[in-house]
Design brief:
By secondary structure, the protein is an alpha/beta fold. The chain has two domains: 43 residues; 248 residues, Purple Acid Phosphatase, chain A, domain 2, CATH 3.60.21.10. The protein is built from seven helices and 13 strands. A seven-stranded mixed sheet has the order 4-5-6-7-9-8-10, with helices on one face. Helix 6 runs parallel beside helix 7.
Length: 308
């Protein structure tokens, strides 16, 4: 009996070791498979929003677009695909709308043809002037062009609970009156969300870097009136900052070409890739998505509405 009992215990011990090794191998394989699945999920972002909640407003932004090159058409195609799955009817065009010198006779090649599918769907573009745009007649033909919906060189419009403020950030802008206007219009606004856009960067880790003159004159106004977002181009890349005194700064200047971009203390995400930005605005938050020409979301950030 004693010998058989020892054999049985030895058998159980051997079986237990084998079972543990076998189970360990299974768990390792399952973990590896889960990691592969998670990796695949992370690299294939669905264009449709995860939440069933309908945003108050969905819009997109892009800049430095007006080349008429294949790269511009590639971004336009990605925007069209995004619109087919996530309907929007507003696009912010943040300057350098016509390269190289703002020649309005190029408007068909650099605007009407690339974005024709969106224009047919009723998407309304609101533009501002970039440094290339003012090379011809100081940009006046673009201000007058109906497709850019510019009632002036700087202007404001509202969609639901979101008010937009377009600026002329060029060196020859009417800065004295424009800054008075911006301060007054922001003061009058009762919109929970205030979004400013212009062509030139303020915070940037790209070619042009930190813009001290604009930082000095604009950021105090943003802070004073609770501007949550500033959208711009000029640097041909994508960069989203952390909130700086309540304002997030977003560069979306890779609408037709790219340049290198680094990172700074203020950077949440930066990328040198052809892209546009998409925004889902809710009552309490804005979700920002950076979307490339492969139709994938490569960056996602949230701006939360701060209570007064």
């Amino acid at each position: 009996m004693s010998f058989k009992r020892r054999q049985f215990l030895l058998f159980l011990s051997t079986l237990s070791g084998f079972s543990l090794a076998f189970l360990s191998k299974i768990f390792r394989n399952q973990s590896a498979a889960s990691a592969d699945i998670n990796s695949a999920i992370a690299s294939t972002i669905t264009l449709k929003p995860a939440a069933s909640e309908t945003p108050l407003l969905r819009f997109v932004s892009l800049a430095d677009t007006g080349t008429g090159a294949k790269s511009q058409y590639a971004v336009a195609k990605a925007m069209t695909r995004y619109q087919s799955q996530n309907e929007f009817n507003l696009a912010i065009l943040a300057g350098d709308n016509i390269y190289n010198d703002g020649e309005i006779e190029k408007i068909n090649a650099v605007f009407e043809r690339p974005y024709q599918p969106l224009l047919k769907q009723g998407v309304k573009f609101h533009a501002c002037l970039g440094n290339h745009d003012i090379r011809t007649d100081n940009g006046d033909p673009q201000v007058s062009y109906p497709g850019f919906n510019m009632p002036g060189r700087y202007y404001t419009f509202r969609r639901d609970s979101i008010q937009f403020f377009a600026l002329d950030t060029n060196h020859n802008a009417d800065w004295k009156n424009q800054l008075i206007w911006l301060d007054q219009e922001l003061s009058r606004s009762d919109a929970p969300w205030k979004i400013v856009f212009g062509h030139h960067q303020i915070y940037s880790s790209g070619n042009y870097g930190l813009n001290q003159p604009l930082n000095k004159v604009l950021t105090p106004i943003f802070k004073k009136h609770g501007v949550q977002l500033y959208i711009n181009g000029h640097d041909h890349n994508y960069e989203r900052t952390r909130s700086i005194n309540g304002t997030t700064y977003l560069i979306c200047g890779a609408g037709a070409g790219v340049r290198p971009v680094g990172r700074s203390a203020w950077t949440e995400y930066s990328a040198s890739k052809l892209s546009f930005a998409a925004f889902d605005v809710y009552s309490d938050r804005i979700i920002i998505s950076g979307i490339g020409t492969n139709n994938r979301v490569f960056d996602r950030g949230i701006i939360k509405l701060q209570s007064a």
